[in-house]
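User: Hey, my collaborator sent me this sequence without any context and asked if I could get a structure. I don't really work with proteins. Can you help?
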Amino acid sequence: METVFLSHFRPLDMVVPRNLSDSTMETTEPMMLRNKATMSDYKHHPIEKWTKEHVQAWLCKTVQVKQKYADMFVKQEISGECLLCFEKQDIVDMGIEYGPAVKIWSQLKKQKALSNTAASCKQKKQRQTSSTPEADASTKTVSPPQRHPIQRAERDNQMPSIFTLLLHCLEDLTDEDFKKFRRYLKEPILNECNTIPTCQLENKERTNIADLIIEYHGEENALKITVCILKKLPRNDLVESLTKNVDQLQVSTTDSKREVKRETNQGEKLKNLLTCGASTLGHYSHFIIIMNKSDPDQLEHLQFLCKLNLFCVLDFDPSSNTNGTCKLYRESRHANLHFPDLFQGEPSAVIKNLNLYNQTSWVFCNGRLDVNSESNRHLDYQSWLRITHREIEQMVSFIYRPEVLPGRRCLVIFLLLSTVQSEKDPIFDTFMTFHRQCGGEENIIHICKNEHTFEKWQNLIQKKYEFDLNKQSIYELDLSQVNGLIMKLGPHSQPCEKLLPSAGSSYVILQQKDADRMTTLDILCANECDNVQVENSSEFQNLKLEVEEEFYRGGEVKWLNFYFSEKQKAKPFIKRDKYEAVMTMVTSQIKRPKSTCVLVNLFHHPGCGGTTLAKHVMWDLRNQLRCAVLKDSSSDDQVASQIMDLMKHGKSDEPPQTPVLLLVDDSKDTEAAEKLKNCIRRKLDENCVTKHEKCTSSLVIILNCVRTHFPKDQYKCCETQSQYITAELTKKEQDDFEEKLQELRENHKRPENFYSFMIMKSNFDKRYVKNVVCNILKDLDIDTKQAQLLSIMALLNSYIPDSHISQSVCEDFLGMKPLLWGKETVLERMEPYSNLLIGSKGGQYGEYSAIRILHHDIACACLEELDLTYNIKRSDITMDLLHCDLFFKTGLGKDALILSIQRMLIERQRNVKNERDTQFSLLIEKIHKDEGRQKVQDIFMKASSRYETSASIPQALARYLYLYDRDFSQALDWAENATKITENPFTVDTIGQIHKNHLKYKIQQEKEQEMPHTPEYLDAYLELAKKAINAFQRAQKLAKTEYEPYEDYHLAKDSYNQSADMGVIETALIVFEMISSLPFFEGEDPLTKRYLQSFLKGSIPITNVYFEDNVINLKYVDVLKKHEQFVHGLKKQAKTSFEFLDSYFTYLKSRKFEEELDHRCRRKVSEYFKEYISVFCSEAEWSQEQAGKRFLRENMDNEARQMFLEEQKADTFAGLLQHLEKESAETMEKITECYTFLHQRLKSRNPKFKTNFILSNLILHFIKPKSKCTMREQDLIHLLKEMMQEIGLQYSSPEPYYLALLLLWPCSSTPDIDKNILLYVRAIRSSFHRQLPHSLRRRGAISYFLLGNKSGLEKLVPKAKLYDSKDPKESNRLWQSGEIFTLEDIKDRLHRVYGTVEQGEVYFEHTKHKIPVHPALLGAVRTGFSTERVSFYLGFSMTGPLAYDIRYES
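Assistant: No problem. I've predicted the 3D structure and written it out in structure-token form, which is a compact way to encode the shape of the chain:
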């Protein structure tokens, strides 16, 4: 009887014939299994009878965990009786991984339930048998008496589940009825439920059937189906019993939960869940809401959504945007409406396209009724599962990617505004998706509209998961209470209504949704921080102390810092002495405007309070100006548009407008701010907010904070209005800091630990910083993870001050387990070094938390202490950093960290002071100096394996090897590796530099070692020179084509690589010097020098040179014959490079960030040109000419004159233009006389010669108008027209067309216009673009002549004579800003012409002709393609006519 009874209640996986006894099985088993206590027969015994071997077999076969976990149970002597006492934590504590532990616990719970049921039934059977011993045990048609599981559960103090009730019903069926019951399950019972597959039902016992019904249909439908089938059998007695027991179960469950709820405070619980035990909402960086359909009466209580920093909302209400929660939210905040399929692709692109972090993403997860398309319709569950479910899974997977959103800092809220009735609801599948991605339930909470909704939701979840949902759920509070509690939570830095200053000392309201749309700006309101807390409350004082401590420790200044300093009893915020100067610099732009958008710069040392000073100025001007901090500079157009929105908010376009003050923080230079200024200026004109001639104030003022190690020097070199502050305090500032310290001592326990403040108070005393660091790093255990992380941060912050490491990466590096997140912070784990660290926000949108060293000086001191005391070198830390995979894996902040590491390795330092840049990054220079070459090579080689797609690392290594190690062979290998990654002018140029430097090194070695010069050496030298020239020419060719901007941070984007042209010139000069030192070219004999010049020019072969006939000379001649073609081409190649660089510097303006480089390059070119001239110009001839007291005597040949022109740089058009600025009448007369002589004598005169001849006459006319050497205007025009007929309109150089514009352009008194002038304008544009590389077209062209008021040649006004200033800096500023045209004497000399702007193009109008003209200054033409009448001044550049000072007549 017992054997038959147990067969009904064996575990789910038990497969044993009903009549097979234990003894029969035991006799048939082999002896070896009997010795192991018959491990596989655990299915025949109740769990409490299991041995440790049974437990092991159950784990391996039923649970299916790895053997090593099963062996752990055997080792710990765990039997079935012990197993029944286990809880989940006991399994985890054994050292079993979390995943297998959950799996074991899930199966153990089932075994416990089955064991309890079997034991109960067994006891009942025994009672029945003992009371009626005569009963026929084989009778199967008699219905068993009714069971009372509720009462039994109450006695056992256990609550039966739906599964238990169903199982009891099935157990009370006869075998025949049970077979019928199983057949009915194959038929459709309820319309909304599918049938269970036949294969699942065959040969299944009662426990399996109960489990299948619930699994396929859910608990609610399982009960309905069971009742329907019981009625068909018919077994109405079981229907009545089941219904009664279910009702009692619901009542008992409700009473139990009510009893529990009376013991809880769910308001406090909700606060703790949202804040992780804090008093404000700051713990979680973002919230994700998953919600279903709301009722209309609930909407008024959902304002709390606007309070939360929502990353996204997953909304299952298709009408949410028309009459639901989405509509409510968008009335107060901005949200972008998305669908799940948009969250696919490269994370950075998706974040940018969807504007994540900046604006809430409202995702419609099951259709959207206000969008009429088939793809956006509302779906039934099966269709949703097939179509949309996969998209939801991909979206959630995307959100939880490490580089998108750190799960540990994000809280997921399931907001159930309506009851979820069954598992077949999309929101339930979404919960399971989030649960998988979150790795558990810790970061998911549930807010339900009432108890019933929670109970249904809990029942659904507990069928799938084994955890207490009640801990993470709110269901007792109604929505109005939830709303009120969240709205009361901080942070409180923002007032309820933001105010912006407006005209007439008035204010306008800035709605939060309008602020949300200005994603690039952090707007400072006039009433910022008002109502932060009740001023006299303890919360106010605690917040004040907290904010003060964070700032004075080294955190970024907050508006709250200024706000608290203005309160009663508070002492003023410390002002650096330059505060007044910066304030005056900003306010003067309002009172004395020079443009609609102006740029002012503040140069400052890192960590000396530059940003704090700028924000202090903004704070004090917030009631006069509309202030904002730039937080996203990726798109100048977007910034300009949002600046316009801020300026115009709440007002019409009528003046007066309230100016905007925009702070650009942490700039490296002024280039980006200049571009932004031009873009904003264009946008102002486009929107017609103001007119230049009627402007009464600057509408936008950009305050650009530039972090630099040379603030004073950059200030001196800057042409725009600027100020600077340094890491040096005045006496007054030191007194202010001393007074502030006394105040801090009154309110804070240990203000001496506010190291950032104390560093400034000590006047940036290095000894103070060193003592602080030495004390904290005393007894440092260098083997700990904390010490390693500190050293890495010190390295990064020393060389890249704005760098940081994300908090999540720090946690992973320190091995902080997920269980500790929220319980222990990184700073707490970093004790006792955490006083040197501070938290900050990282990422373009501040989307993640990060850690850094709190001050640049402390980071530097840490490196020194690690080196001196613990012998931890910079190279060791760098290698550890490059070796650690964690820092290069996918994760939040990874891209910023990898970029910082790369910059630290390759970013060279620009030194404005001595006009010399470092050869390598400061880190590499330091390691090279202190630790030697091998360490540097090891670092670069390791870095090249990390940055496999970066050409800059192998290129830097190649440069290091040839510059410092003189290992030219290995350097060449690395340079060629760089070109394989990226072939561009810079990587190819490095190959040329290696060969050139190798050549110089060999020549230098020969001289130092006094080695005899041999033909073999000459042959090797010429081979190296040939390789260098070939590489430089390849680089020149690449520079003249389009290429991707290079990643070398020392180089400006779009820069033209001058190094290749310089390399050609220098290599050619080296070869000229080598050849001139050969035996048959040595000496000062004029004839010998003549032979040398003729040979180098390619006029004669080497065999025609006279030399003494000996073995050495013959070998030299053989070598030169071998390389003769190469040597003959060198002069032409060098001359071409000279001419190109001359044109480059003469025709085009240097961009501000390139001025320093251009200046150095021009100076070097000038030195090279002197060497070049000394080779090809005979000093003896010139001295003989000078002794004759007569210039260019008749007996001088043509070549001598040509050599003179070349020496004076007068043989090129660009060189002649430079004589306009030199204004040497005597030299210019000689030049013109040379050209006149050659013009008369030369039989063949090419267009280049003719253009130079005409230009020389023009320049001489302007320098010395009455000179007898100049030709008449009519003769020049006649010569020009002859030449133009000869060259046509497709000539390769723009110079002839430039002369045509100068001579043929109509003046104010000319009624007619030359019919070809329009053709020449088009020709000069196309010719110039063909001649110059694409990278140079971004430079502005220089006008050497402007159109004046007079006629004839006097209509041309040389720019050099237009404004005479002894201060070049002031002159450049006037020209670049356009302010020069406001000077009265300038306006009197120039002729203002009239024309139109059509479709963005400017046209000059004369009689009935329209000639296209380029605007000289960016932003001078309004966008929008409006056709307008304009007037302007005309200038003539090599790109064609330019329009200056464009004024709109409308």
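In plain terms: The first helix runs from residue 2 to 8. You can pass these tokens on to your collaborator as they are.
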